Amino acid sequence: MEAPFLYITTFFSLGILLGRFLFLPYVFLTLMAASVVVLFFVYKKGKNVSLLLILPFALLGAILTGFALNAPNPYERLDGKFIAIKGKVCDVKEEEGYAKYVVKPENLPKILITQYGGEYPKKGDIVEVRGIVSLPKPSSNPGGFDYQLFLRKKGIYAVMRIHPYGTSIIGRRANLFEEILWRAQERIKENFLASMPKKDAQFLITSFLGEKVLDDQILTQFRTVGISYITAVAGMQVAIISGFVLYILSVVHLTRYRAFILLPVLIFYAFLTGLNPPVIRAVVMASIAVIGATYGKNKNSINSLSFAAFLILLFNPLMLWDVGFQLSFVATLAILYFYRPIDERLFKLPSYLKGIIALNLSAQIGTIPFVMYYFHYISFVSFLSNIAIVPLVNIAIILGFLSAFLGFVFPTASVFVNYINIPFIELLFKVTSFFEKFPYASVNVFIPPVIVIVLYYIVLGILISGIELRKKKLAVAASFMVVAVIFFWNYFVPKDLEVTFLDVGQGDATFVRTPHGRAFLIDGGGNPVFSNSSFDIGEDILLPFLYYKGVIKLDAVFISHTDIDHIGGIITVLENMKVDRVFIGVQKVEDQNFKKMMEVAGKKRVPVIFLKKGDKVEVDGVKVYVLHPDPGNLIEENPINNNALVFKMRYGNISFLFTGDIEKPAEEVLKESDLKTHVLKVAHHGSSTSSTPEFIEKADPQVFVIQVGKNSYGLPSERVVKYLKERGKLYRTDENGAVIVRTDGVKARIYPFLKGVKE
C-alpha cells in the first residue's frame, strides 16, 4: 500500500461524518474493540490486515466527533443571564466601531466578546467582561451558515456583546513564547504600515500574516478574477518562504543544515499565522519533504498530505467542516494527481508558463465544486488572471518575508525592501482591476446538489484510476446520465408548492417556489439602521439560501412595506440577482428605504408595480389576491405599517394570508374582506397592537407563523402567543427556525427546520 494514510484519513473522515449525525459512543466503542480483537486474530494467522485497519479508524472518527459535538456546554445554565467573567484574551480583531476578541476564563470554555467602542484589550491581557451570555445558534435555514459549529471548531461555546463600560483590563499574563509571538506580529504590522501605502501594507498583513484587514472592495475584486486564495495564508506562502530560505542556504553553502534551519522557521511561521489548518498542512508536508531529502529518504507526497490531514482531524475532528481545511487539502490533492499529466500535454509552451497553467488548472479541477458550494460563483477570467498575477504575488511575499526578517535585525534595510515592494503590489492591484472589467468576469451560480458533487469526485477518481479505458468511459457516461436525470427532475418535473418562512432574525422574509420551479420572495428582512454589525441579511442569509435552492433568478419580489426589517435584504437581492419585477402596495409615505429601493430597481431596470385592493397576480398557477391597501381609504395612523400590502395567496384549495406589519386600524378595515385562510403569517411579529380577536376569528387559520427574532420590543406579545396557541398550531422562527410548508393544493405538510425544538 503506497499511501496508507490516504485510506486511513479517508475512512477516519467518513467516521467523522457519521459522528455528526449519530451519537452512539458505547455502540461505537464496542464495535471498535471488537474490530481490534478481530484484527489481532487475523494478524496472528499471518494474513494481510491492511484493509481491516480502516474500520477502527472510522469508528474512532465517529466517537471523537460525537464527543466534540455533544460535550456539555457549561454556559447553558447562564444563557440569557447578566454575569461577570474574568479571563485571558486569546485573540483580537478590530473592526470599524467594534472589536471581537476571545476570552478564556479559568473554569469555563472560551467565549467570544463583541465590544462596541472604548479601549480594546490586546492578546494576553486579563480582562473582566460584564454582559448577557448568549449561546450561538445552529443553522436555522436550509443551506444556512452554522454559527454554532463555526465557533465550536474554535473551542468557543458562548458569545457576549458589551459596551465600553462592560469591560475592565485588570492585568496581563502571557508566557515568554506568547509574548515573543505577539510582539513579532505587532512589529511586522508596524513595519509594513510605517513605510508603505495603507492599502499595500494591508495586502501584506492579510496575505502574509493571515489577518483579514484588506478593504472589502479589493477582496471583491480578487474574488471576481478568481485569485481570492492569495489572501488566505496557506501552502503558497509556505512554499514561497521555503523556496526562498532553501535558495539562500544554497548560496551560502549550508544546504546540509536545511532541516535544522528551515523547520524552526516554518514552525514559527505557523504559530505566527494562528495555526490555521492550511498552514499546518503545508508545514507538515514541507517538513517531511525536507527531512526526507536531508536523510536520503523517498517521500510520498500523497501519503504526507494524508498524514497532515489525519493529524489535524485527530486533534480537532470538527475541522473537517472548515472551508479553509477542505479547499487546502482538495486543491493540494488535485495538484498532486493532475499537475504532471497537464504539464506533459503543454510541452510546446515555455516551462515557466506551462508550470503556472498546470498548477492553476489542476487546483481548479479539484476545488470548483467547493467554490460553487460555498461562494456561489465561477470566475471565467481566473485562468488568465492567475498567469499574470501569481508571479507578482510570489515577489510580494518574498519581499514581505525579507522585510519582516530585516525588521528585527536591520530596520532601515526593511524600509528599503518595502519601498521596492510597493510597485509590485500596486501593479498587482492594477492587473486585478483590469481583469475585473472583463464582461462576465465572474457569474453567480446556484449550489450543485451534494449527490452531483459526490459524482464529480467519483468521476475524477475513475479517471486517475488504473481501470481499463472502456470501463472508464462506461462509468463516466453513467455518472453523466445520473446528473441529467437529477437536472430533469429538479427543473422539469412538477412538484408541490413550497412556502418557506425564513428565519431572518427580527424581520420577515418568505420564499415561494411554484410547482414548475418559478420563485419569488415576500419581504426580505434587514438590519436596523442603528446596528453596528457588518452582517447583511440579504448577503448572508437570503442569497445563500436562494443559491442553495438552485435559484439564480427571481420571477417576482413582493414588498409588504418599507420598514428596514422587511425591505433591507430585498435591496441587496436586487443589487446581486436578476429580478423580473417588484410588487409593492401604493404608498402614502415615501421614506428613505422606499427611495433607495426605487433607485436600485431603476438602476437594474426592474419594473416596480404598485398594487391596490382588488388587484390579482398569478405566477405559475399560484394566485395572489390583494386585499389592502385601498388608495381611496389610506390610513393616517402609523401609515407605513397600516397601509402595508396584504394579500391572500392561493394554490388549489390551500391559502396563505400575508399581513406585513398591519395593526388594529388596518385589521378593522380588513374585517370586511375575505380573510378565511389555512396559514396566517401573523402581523407585526406577534405584537399586541395586532392580531385582534375579531381579525383572527374572521381569518380562522389552522396554522400561525410568527417571524420574529431576538429584540428589545417585547415581541411576540405573551398574550398574543397564548391566544394563538388556543386557536391553532403556532410556529415561531426564533424557536423553530425556518418553517417550511409544502402543499399539492389539497393537503399541506409543515416542517419546522429545527427539529427537537419544544413546540
UniProtKB/TrEMBL annotation:
Return the InterPro entries for the record.
ComA-like_MBL, ComEC_N, Competence_ComEC/Rec2, Competence_DNA_uptake, DUF4131, Metallo-B-lactamas, RibonucZ/Hydroxyglut_hydro
Q: Report the subcellular localization.
A: Cell membrane
Q: Which keywords are on file for this protein?
A: Cell membrane, Membrane, Transmembrane, Transmembrane helix
Q: Which residues does UniProt assign to the signal peptide?
A: none
Q: What is its main location?
A: membrane
A single GO cellular-component term on record: plasma membrane
Q: Quick check: keyword Glycosyltransferase in the entry? A: no
Q: Which GO BP annotation is one of this protein's?
A: establishment of competence for transformation
- Annotated Metallo-beta-lactamase domain residues: 506-710
What residues form the membrane-spanning segments?
Answer: 21-43, 49-69, 227-249, 255-272, 279-296, 308-339, 351-375, 387-409, 416-435, 447-467, 474-492
- Its topology with respect to the membrane? Multi-pass membrane protein
Among NCBIfam families, the record links this protein to:
ComEC_N-term (TIGR00360), ComEC_Rec2 (TIGR00361)
**Name under which the protein is recorded:** DNA internalization-related competence protein ComEC/Rec2
